[in-house]
Design goal:
Oligomer: single chain
CATH class of the largest domain: Alpha Beta
CATH topology of the largest domain: Isopropylmalate Dehydrogenase
Protein name: 4-hydroxythreonine-4-phosphate dehydrogenase
Cofactor: Zn(2+); Mg(2+); Co(2+)
CATH architecture of the largest domain: 3-Layer(aba) Sandwich
Subcellular location: Cytoplasm
InterPro entries: PdxA, PdxA_fam
Radius of gyration: 20 Å
Largest sheet: 12 strands, mixed
Number of helices: 12
Strand content: 15-25%
Subunit structure: Homodimer.
Length: 336
């Protein structure tokens, strides 16, 4: 546990705010080493544009990573052909994906203890003729896992999702016993591994208003959710629900819970983002690596202005560090 903890940070879309958010963090002393996986030229150009005196150090595996204020280690990635803030360029798309691949493969190889991602622009990557639906699916395929779970978190609240980016009309059919079992088991296991919670208590939302009200407002709770939760409780999982989503997110329930499991995207995330937008973290569970991300997009209109807020990236790094330390402690049979 005494060895330096090193996180890889991908700078995201070159035209967006990711590069300057990383440079903002470089101005602060850090409790772990950070390696920026990005084009060195891009970072130098953006620092010049913003008038920042950041010292960039070339990094290769095996080298210590910078944690001093004003210094930043950079794993240089080639292929960034345009560095103009606010102006998307499809020619940069493969470069963006290369940064993700290098960071993730570095985590799998033990070069990094986790990765933190600044925002990418899915549209411009697809316009370049590359099929890309997001960080989560990209990392799922690269790591070769069957199921991943999206969880957003602040310091006070964790919300995981059974389904993610689906039209509302498709959600009910997607909530199958197998999917619910997989998601819930991953959530419980990763709360233990990455957050050090030995017996996590998970609140589970129903799908329908009033959690179906005994079948009068829908039968998904009776036919799918309740039997599956009963099965999982038999495995030792501490699950409370299904609960009406409109009362689940109240202190009465949340004060004694470690996470909430929502059935669909807009059931759980509006509550979390209202509670902590700008300091929330997107976490991918189910991977063999630590991955956290910001809770916002590329903000092209702010790029290059120096006014973007690094709060979410700062929180993502802090959360990634905590998760990595918990995993190291679990592997060593220690507590944290």
């Amino acid at each position: 546990m005494s060895a330096q903890l090193v996180l890889a940070v991908t700078a995201g879309e070159p035209a967006g705010i990711g590069p300057e958010l990383c440079l903002q963090l470089a101005g602060e002393e850090r409790s772990c080493g950070l390696v920026l996986v990005a084009s060195r030229e891009l970072m130098q150009d953006r620092a010049r544009q913003l008038g920042l005196a950041t010292c960039l150090h070339d990094w290769q595996p095996g080298m210590p990573a910078e944690s001093r204020a004003g210094h930043l280690s950079v794993r240089d990635v080639s292929g960034c052909l345009s560095t103009e803030p606010g102006k998307l360029d499809t020619a940069n798309s493969q470069y963006v994906l290369d940064t993700l691949s290098i960071a993730a493969r570095g985590c799998l190889a033990g070069e990094f203890d986790g990765m933190v991602t600044a925002p990418v622009h899915k549209g411009v990557i697809n316009e370049a003729g590359i099929a890309f639906s997001g960080h989560t699916e990209f990392l799922q395929a690269l790591c070769g896992v069957e199921r991943v779970v999206m969880m957003l978190a602040t310091e006070e609240l964790r919300v995981a999702l059974v389904t993610t980016h689906l039209p509302l009309k498709d959600v009910s059919a997607a909530i199958t016993p197998e999917r619910l079992r997989q998601v819930t088991r991953i959530l419980a296991a990763d709360l233990r591994t990455f957050f050090g919670i030995e017996q996590p208590r998970i609140l589970v939302a129903g799908l329908n208003p009033h959690a179906g009200e005994g079948g009068h407002l829908g039968r998904e709770e009776i036919e799918v959710i309740e039997p599956t939760l009963a099965e999982l409780r038999g495995e030792g999982l501490q699950l409370i629900g299904p609960l009406p989503a409109d009362t689940l997110f109240t202190p009465h329930w949340l004060d004694n819970a470690d996470a909430a499991l929502a059935m669909y995207h807009d059931q759980g995330l509006p509550v979390l983002k209202f509670q902590g937008f700008g300091r929330a973290v997107n976490i991918t569970l189910g991977l063999p690596i630590v991955r956290t991300s910001v809770d916002h997009g590329t903000a092209l209109d702010l790029a290059g202005t120096g006014t973007a807020d690094a709060g979410s990236l700062r929180t993502a790094i802090r959360m990634g560090e905590h998760m990595a330390r918990c995993r190291k402690a679990a592997q060593a049979g220690e507590s944290i």
